[in-house]
Amino acid sequence: MQASSDSTSSFPKAFVLISPFFLWGTAMVAMKGVIPYTTPFFMAAIRLVPAGILVLLVAAILKLPQPKTLKAWLWILAIAVVDGAMFQGFLAQGIVKTGAGLGSVMIDSQPLAVALLSSLLFGEVIGLWGWLGLTLGVLGISLIGLPDIWIYIV
Description:
The protein is an all-alpha fold.
């Protein structure tokens, strides 16, 4: 049996570990509040540029190895532009047309897409329970996105 001091000292650690998930979800609410005053792609850039600078600063402070060649940096730049435009940019564009809650659920469906693509592209095996979970996940997300009129037809 563990002493009670262990459980109280583990609470801050657990809180720190789960806080990014909470903060990630609140970003959609903040984006929905800001979007009437700016453009979606500008908002996406404002989210990404400071985060990228912070990552580079932390990596430099910790003296982590950095890419050495121009080719490596060009690949990083290409991936950043594609991710910035397609993921963050389209996410911000989508929040214009949806609510913050629906937008958050839709973006959090990303693991389902990754699992399906990993199976199709790389031959990763998804067992029976995995397929059942993926099917329920896709069905659930699809139902959340249905217009109310389709559900509440009187």
